[in-house]
Amino acid sequence: MDTQKEVIKEIAQYLGLAPNDLDGHALLQEDLNLSPVELNDLIAHLSATFDVILPTEELSEVKSINDLIVLIEDNLI
C-alpha cells in the first residue's frame, strides 16, 4: 500500500477535491482553509480510515499534508 497516495486520496475525498488538486506541502489551515474543528474532524476521519491512534501531543505539530502522512505512517507500524 502506498500510504502517501492513500492519505492524499482520503483527504481529497473528505474535502470534496480531486487528489491531483492537493500538494503535500499544502498547509492544512492556511492553504486548505480548515478551521480547528474541521482539522480535528479530518484527523478523526483519517484515524478511523487507517485504523491508527494518533498521539495528541504530536497533533499540535501537524501543519501540512506531509506532516499528516508522516504521522500516520509512523503509527501504522
Can you tell me the CATH class?
Mainly Alpha
Structural class: mainly alpha
Strand content: under 5%
Q: Give the tally of structural domains.
A: 1
Low-confidence stretches: none
By CATH, the topology is Non-ribosomal Peptide Synthetase Peptidyl Carrier Protein, Chain A
The largest sheet is:
none
Order of helices and strands: HHHH
End-to-end Cα distance: 13 Å
- How many helical elements? 4
What is the CATH architecture descriptor?
Orthogonal Bundle
CATH superfamily: ACP-like
Q: What is the 3D form? A: globular
Number of strands: 0
Radius of gyration: 11 Å
Mean pLDDT across all residues, rounded? Answer: 93
Write structural notes for this entry.
This protein is mainly α and 77 residues long. The protein has one domain (3-76): Orthogonal Bundle (Non-ribosomal Peptide Synthetase Peptidyl Carrier Protein, Chain A), CATH 1.10.1200. It is 57% helix and 0% strand. The chain is built from four helices and no strands. The chain has helices spanning 3-15, 36-50, 56-59, 65-76. 12% of the residues are buried.
